[in-house]
Amino acid sequence: MRYRLRFLLQEFDLPRGTTIVGRSLDCNLTIEDPLVSREHAKIIIDDDGPRVEDLKSRNGVRVNGLLVRQPTLLRDGDRVRIGTQDLVFCRVEASGKAHSRTTGVLRLCAQCRLPYAREILACPHCEATEQTDEGTLTTDSEDYRIAWNMQLIVETLERALGLGRAPDAERIAKRAIGKLDELLLCGATLDRETLGTVASKVASMTLATDDPKWLLWVIDLHRRIASVPSVEILDKLAVAGPRHGAVLGGPLGELLESLESSILSGSPKDHDLEGLARLQRTRRQMEGQAARGRVGSRSERPGVT
Length: 305
Fold this sequence. Notes:
Elements: E1 2-7, E2 10-14, E3 17-22, E4 29-30, E5 41-45, E6 51-54, E7 61-63, E8 66-68, E9 72-73, E10 79-82, E11 85-92, E12 105-109, E13 115-117, E14 131-138, H1 142-162, H2 166-185, H3 192-209, H4 213-224, H5 231-263, H6 270-299
Parallel strand pairs: 3-4
Antiparallel strand pairs: 1-2, 1-11, 3-5, 5-6, 6-9, 7-8, 7-10, 10-11, 12-13, 12-14
Helix pairs in contact: 1-2, 1-3, 2-3, 3-4, 3-5, 4-5, 5-6
């Protein structure tokens, strides 16, 4: 029996013995990912069956979405996540043809709308047991690929921020922005909840780095998709406003004008009206802060009373 790891459009044979996976060039399989340890995990192929083992990495190893602490047996179609990369473990028949079940099948959780392996009884993200009426979601689905990639980016960005690794977080945030901008430019249909989750994590970058460019992108994103920012983003805007009102005030005003014309002309929902009211308050606070700054600047000049 032969085994392989499928990574994007590439496949890597797993020889009998031990295969080391990590960021180091000395590994059997090198993954250039800032959240992958130099020697992150090993995959063992022997008479006891194929299994993966975490090598005390910083960010762990997940199999079908579940964090594994001990050596874990692998089955055909299992998804092994290392860093931001999702590897599919495949069994290959003696003839060289892959076993029929090589892509795996995932369900959509009815509660958090994230995909997870069909074999798992409960969602590993929120522990809900109810699935959506849409049935299963295969890895051949474009919707799956988008949702899965965005989920990986959000998780790695959150982890990098939690570890205080600002340079890594900036690289991941830039990757998220580039990916979303590309999808929007191509006219892809993106789930608003997914967009909001990514935007909230990108907004966190302004609080972590004191750089307003991240919130500027978030404001522009919501203008482009004609959507009121989530409560989490509104909270971050309120915190960043006093420091960066001079930069954020103009774009925030443009967002307000766009939303007021598009939302108020229809039948707005209560949460949209509440969000608009909060945006208006935040904008007024920014304007007041800027005005106080101008007055203070004039009063400091010689001869000004």
